[in-house]
Amino acid sequence: MRTISRWELIKMISEKVDHECPQWVIYYVVQAMGKCMEEIIRDGNKLVIKDTFSLKPVYKKERKISNFGNPIVIPGHYVPQFKVYHRLKDACAEYEESLKNDTEDEIDE
What we know:
Elements: H1 6-16, H2 23-42, E1 47-49, E2 53-60, E3 63-67, E4 70-74, E5 77-84, H3 86-108
Antiparallel strand pairs: 1-2, 2-5, 3-4
Helix pairs in contact: 1-2
């Protein structure tokens, strides 16, 4: 598994649209999408990209934990919740299947 950088993502998007859109335009769209996602969360709204994912702020209530015997109170706060839908789950299943196939191929050799 490797980390895909922003520029690699931009190149991937450019290839998906058959290079009909300049990469600099895609760059600004990716930047704007990130800013829009921040604004959606900041306003307390939920973003849903059908069949792919949802993103919303979720309140985590106050928790009390013990840190080496010292009680600590973590105050209630909001955190972003990213929930994947079936398209991303299917992609993970395909990745898992490819790993199994690679392992089986190595065993056969």
